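Anyone up for a design puzzle?
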């Protein structure tokens, strides 16, 4: 009898310098009509990393988010996701590739219940492994408050509940990267602290996040790298510790 051995192929992990960036935004320039919004924004995000965009109102944080998601495609530059060019890709295709977006204005469905808001956003994991997919049970474990109000319509929820629902709804799409736009805005301090801790749990779980935020304490607690935007450009990049120690930069770009 001839013995047949199964051949096992060993795949070498590419060296870091040759491995595609998880997210790579390269010199994007975005405009709304005749109004210029971004003037050459570049940034990268690696697996499990939280990268923050901070700055005053109107400096380009939301436009950067919308450009990545395809809601405001850049006129110049490129956005690459896991080595693939998504610069001009339709939003629903970007979502199916594993990028979730939590907009500043939340945009829940007010006439649908909490459970229906979650169910309508359900997408399978992009790798096809159902065991890794988010379920209602997992979402309710992360946000216990939502479990008790799952039959309540979205339009009657408090601001904090709506923000939790918006994040939970995005998770039901099984993103590998989450774009969070001003998640703490307009919320009471105790809700902001709760939300911060929940986002930290997502980070510990390995989810990559781009965080646009004005609350500096919120940013310094969560992020691995911080970019400060001013007039559509990145004027400063550093670690939370370096920014925390640099009072001059905080005063120049972040005080009102």
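Challenge accepted. My sequence:
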């Amino acid at each position: 009898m001839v013995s047949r051995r199964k051949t096992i192929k060993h795949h070498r992990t590419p060296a870091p310098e040759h491995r595609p960036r998880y997210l790579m935004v390269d010199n994007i320039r975005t405009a709304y009509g005749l109004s210029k919004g971004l003037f050459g924004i570049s940034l990268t995000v690696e697996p499990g990393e939280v990268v923050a965009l901070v700055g005053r109102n109107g400096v380009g944080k939301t436009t950067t988010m919308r450009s990545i998601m395809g809601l405001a495609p850049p006129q110049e530059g490129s956005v690459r996701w896991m080595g693939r060019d998504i610069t001009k890709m339709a939003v629903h295709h970007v979502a199916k590739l594993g990028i979730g977006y939590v907009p500043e204005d939340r945009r829940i469905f007010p006439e649908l219940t909490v459970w229906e808001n979650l169910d309508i956003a359900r997408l399978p994991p992009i790798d096809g492994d159902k065991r890794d997919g988010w379920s209602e049970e997992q979402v309710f474990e992360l946000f216990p408050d939502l479990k008790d109000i799952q039959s309540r319509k979205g339009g009657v929820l408090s601001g904090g509940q709506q923000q939790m629902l918006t994040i939970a709804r995005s998770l039901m799409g099984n993103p590998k990267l989450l774009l969070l736009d001003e998640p703490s805005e307009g919320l009471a301090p105790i809700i902001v602290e709760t939300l911060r801790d929940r986002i930290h749990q997502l980070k510990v779980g390995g989810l990559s996040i781009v965080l646009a935020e004005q609350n500096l304490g919120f940013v310094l607690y969560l992020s691995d790298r911080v970019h400060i935007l001013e007039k559509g450009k990145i004027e400063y990049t550093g670690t939370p510790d370096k920014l925390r120690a640099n009072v001059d930069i905080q005063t120049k770009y972040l005080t009102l």
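A detail worth pointing out: The chain has ten helices and twelve strands.
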